[in-house]
Amino acid sequence: MRTTIASTLILIAVCLAIFAAAPANLHTSALSTTANSRERFQSTTAPSTIADARSPIRHLIVVVGENRSFDNVFGTYVPSDPTQTVWNLLSQDIVQINGNPGTNFDAAAQQQATDTTSYELSPSQTVPFAPLPQPSTTLSALPTGLCNLGIFCSDIGLDPTSQGLLSTRGTGQPFYDPNAGATPVPDCRYPSDLDNGPYLLLGDSELNNCGTPFLAESIANTTYTSNTGDPVHRFYQMWQQSDCSVANITPENPSGCERDLFTWVAVTVGWGFTNPPMTDQDTFQGGVAMGYYSMAQGDFPYFLDLAENYAISDNYHQPVMGGTGPNSQFLFTGDVYYFTDANGNPAMPAADLVEDPNPRPGTNNFYNNDHFNVAADPGSTGVAFTNCSDDTQPGVQPIMSYLQALPYPPFHNGNCDSNHWYQLNNDYPNYTTMGTIISNQDVNEFPAGPAFSIGPQTIPTVGDALSAHNISWRYYGGGFSVASHDPPSNSLYCAICNGFQYATSIMTTSLRQNLVDLEEFYTDVATNQLPAVSFLKPDVLLDGHPGTSTPALFEAFVRKIVNSVRANNQLWSDTAILITFDESGGLYDSGYIQPIDFFGDGPRTVLIAVSPFAKHGHVDHTYADHASILKFIEWNWTLPSLSSRSRDNLPNPIAAPNAPYFPLNSPAIGDLRTLFTIPQPTPTPRPTPSPRPTTPTPRPGG
Q: Residue 7: pLDDT band by 50, 70, 90 thresholds?
């Protein structure tokens, strides 16, 4: 959720009067000139050699974008190999290849419901929507590309031919900026009578009584490079949107999750910060969750090329219901962080940060206390915590009762330790990028202040495990080196996305030096310094997040990474690149959901494996989530599971040949080896790496 980014950046542009004549030095992104902008960590204690691996894959690169469901990207993908099948909107006959409704369109129809007393996973339904509520511009959809306002006209994550994507058209309409008196509106690029189901973000775009453009010269139909609305994606909302009930279980749907309340939850509670809604537009959502791109009509062209030449999964899931923070952090822990005191002991958070999804009296499903922090940095802070070991806590019993009624036992009986208040929605880490504890002076890096820090975390991370076995690793974060700088450059880095920044074992030791700016990735590739395991996170301009970024920008970011690695023949020969998203972003998806514990799994997102060892044109159906990446790392480098709680302890799925999506031994997740053809390893000589400097580069001015 990117309200702060959108409003802050545009406010800066307006205040600087950049519309008229921007100074030349403001037309360059801070990210393209950060080499000397801050003391850069140089890893002098972390291993620089590549440890022996069990397979020929000696380098793993994990690239994480933002907020796309599988159907939002691959909804009309048709594998060119006739032996391959895929589960998507098209194959399920929900839509036709031209985007028209399919014969099974009603399977995705969104229902209305009633929930007025206590939170329910599967509330009583009333009638379907007719038509789908008009999509909203939502809270954070940019009205125009930021370069058109004079800021961020170049980015280190893009090659020269792609820099122009920063100047493309936005919605041309208001978003949420109370400082400017702006509120979202029904997106006039779409009709008000859309069919009740998935709609084409491009093909169904038609101007509908558009008014005066907002911060833009004009309003035009949606294109692949323009911004679209951002659906709600929070924990209790996403559980409810999935509409899971054992009463709905069938052989074709073994968990009974119907996925038919996306729109109802969005228009009855949304992000939970408004007044209780009186219309289907008052939560600034409408039917935005049902939009999808059409790969069959030319959308996501680079991802199509990767799918045809390498391998994808059509059964890869976000591990936690809800948003960016818990899902991103899970990638490094296989677990969920919880609120702690200053010493890392479990503690109870402030009462106003405790979740209460029970409906407010006199409303239909408008939660009592579940919203982001309105005062500052709403995308990264807000109500977040639940003690799920206590059935009397709001929202807990419906989820636990459903899990206990499933035909298989939940992982660790729900995986809720006693008196732990787990972080279900976004809040800050305990540490700044420099390893200091957040204070009120860190207003650039953490605008909402230390009241929204979850405390120091002691859950083991994959970084700890790799370092303990002398296996090199790095986290390359877009905007990392300017996170504490003045606006607007401080808005580029995503702290809640970096699970390592929460961990005491990383941030208070020499392992902190493994967290570096994205710019160093390209240097490490060119100088043969790339570690065995790399995690790459683009800045917020390029991450593909609906609202503040676009699919075209994330594709361009991925293309530069793949091309950089392929240009180094020796590196390419033993590398696998995994491309995924942190979570589905609240966008509709038709795929199966396997509930594992209280926290998830959630809907499907994307996973693409790019490697000389990836199966050509393969669509893998093995059930997987972010813990599968941990399992692959642990298999490939012979590491133990991270902890007794982490989901990397789960077995690989066993499935019937005629039902490959549904594990017979649930809960189970794969280790991704089924995406690759892995021969026995043969030792190959490594190129001599160029030494990294051991003296930090000084700050400008000495």
A: low
CB atoms < 10 A from the CB of 217, how many? 10
Amino acid at 281: Q
Q: How far apart are CA 680 and CA 689, in angstroms?
A: 25
User: What pLDDT, on the 0 to 100 scale, is given for residue 374?
Assistant: 82
Confidence (pLDDT) at 375: 81
Is the CB of residue 203 less than 8 Å from the CB of residue 294? yes
pLDDT recorded at residue 3: 57
Burial bucket for residue 517 (CB in 10 Å: 0-12, 13-18, 19+): buried
DSSP, res 303: H
Using the predicted structure, report yes or no on whether residue 549 has a pLDDT greater than 90.
yes
DSSP per position, 307-359:
HHHSEEESSEE-SSSS-HHHHHHHHHHSS--B-B-TTS-B-PPPGGGB-EEEE
Three-class DSSP labels, 541-593: CCCCCCCCCCHHHHHHHHHHHHHHHHCCHHHHCCEEEEEEECCCCCCCCCCCC
pLDDT tens, residue by residue, 43-96 = 334 334 566 899 999 999 999 999 999 999 999 999 999 999 999 999 999 999
**Which uninterrupted H or E stretch holds 477?**
strand 473-477
Q: Which of 166, 133, 134, 126 is nearest to 149 (CA)?
A: 166
Quick check: 152 and 305 in contact, CB under 8 A?
no
CA distance 629 to 561: 19
Q: Tell me if 255 sits within 8 A of 406, measured CB to CB.
A: yes
- In 106-228, DSSP assigns E strands to 111-114, 124-128, 199-200
User: Which of 225, 236, 202, 231 lies closest to 68 in space, CA to CA?
Assistant: 231
Quote the CA–CA distance of 325 and 544 in Å, as a whole number.
16
- The CB density around residue 508, as the number of other CB atoms within 10 Å, is 15
b or e along 621-650 (b: 16 or more beta carbons within 10 Å of the residue's beta carbon)?
A: bbbbbbbbbbbbbbbbbebebbeebbbbbb
Quote the CA–CA distance of 40 and 477 in Å, as a whole number.
13
Q: Which helix (H) or strand (E) holds 618?
A: strand 618-620
Secondary structure, 3-state, 266-286: HHHCCCCCCCCCCCCCCCCCC
User: 3-state DSSP call for residue 120?
Assistant: coil
Residue 568: exposure state from Cβ atoms within 10 A (0-12, 13-18, ≥19): middle
| CA separation for the pair 108, 482 (Å, rounded) | 43
| pLDDT digits 0-9 by tens, 331-345 | 999 999 999 999 999
